Amino acid sequence: MINGWPIAHHVLNGSLRDCQTLGGVLKDLEKRFGLGRVIFVGDRGTVTIQNLALLRQRGQGYLVGLKSVSRFNMVTRSVPPSSVRTASGSSPLPTTIQHASGTRSLASRSVSRSTKIAS
Q: Of 11, 49, 107, 118, which has the maximum CB count within 10 A?
């Protein structure tokens, strides 16, 4: 979106996994619209170590949904442990991840979802 208006959409081959689409979409947006920096919003199907690394490498922002605790742990383990600061207790406050590049990520778990999974 630019100023609240969508600028593009992509219809992809049904046999292509979600996690395989990010690189091509980023290249297309840069080529067609000259967008050097975007904020990627994706569902859990797009979240892989490789895709997160690609977004970071290109200086892109992102907001992604993570379904499970294992995915949350994957994201926080993909950076040096010394750069991860977790809120104390069972607070829903986010985990702050300070990257060497100076960027900061926030990861938060849903308390209600965690309770539902545990029961």
A: 107
Number of domains in the chain: 1
Q: What is the pLDDT of residue 117?
A: 61
Whether residue 22 contacts residue 34, with contact meaning beta carbons closer than 8 Å, is answered with no
State the residue range of the domain holding 36: 1-65
Is the Cβ–Cβ distance between 46 and 22 less than 8 Å? yes
Instruction: Please measure the distance between the N-terminal and C-terminal CA atoms of the chain and give it in whole angstroms.
Output: 39
**Does residue 21 sit within a domain?**
yes
Q: For the whole prediction, is pTM greater than 0.90?
A: no
Per the DSSP assignment, residues forming a β-bridge with 98 are 104
pLDDT score recorded for residue 31 = 92
Parallel/antiparallel/unpaired status of strands 61-64 and 84-85: unpaired
